[in-house]
Amino acid sequence: EGRLMENAARRKLLNLMGVRYILDRTENASTENTFPPDLFRPVYQDNDWKIFENLESLPRAFMVNRYSLYTSAHEFETMFFDESFDPGIHVLLTAKPDIIPLLTEQAGTATIQSYKPTEVIIRTDASADQLLVLTDTFYPGWIAIVDDQTTQIHKADWTFRAVEVPKGTHTVTFRYQPLSFLWGSKHL
Fold it and tell me: What is the pLDDT of residue 8?
């Protein structure tokens, strides 16, 4: 009972990965200590099954105005699992971005307009330069375009993607275009 709540690191990872629903069974003997009502809302129950909504889960795409750099696995773990680190407002990167987010500004908004296996289109709006975090895997072959300009994809929080987005309203497109696709299409 309560094991989920006792493990802050597990909750932080579940929230960052956008785990919005948790399936539970009566045989687990879960109580309000396991799923506190201020963090988990019951949304379904049928016979021995219950589904709880995680009220702290982050969306797949969101804006942040804080970042820190890390250079090793140990440094990442130390920073990420620190009690004060909040992945909803702060991202850990391996390289310094060109923009400097203003710490006093509120995070902007990010709305997924289209989500396909090889293309993700996100609309952003922010009153200052910020970083867009997409909790899809950082992987070679993906490119990012802010409006009509190709931009660097940063490795974010060890395994995800982040791009720099200037203030204002913008369209950010992530497109899977590995060199193998281009080489193969030239030989068709």
Answer: 87
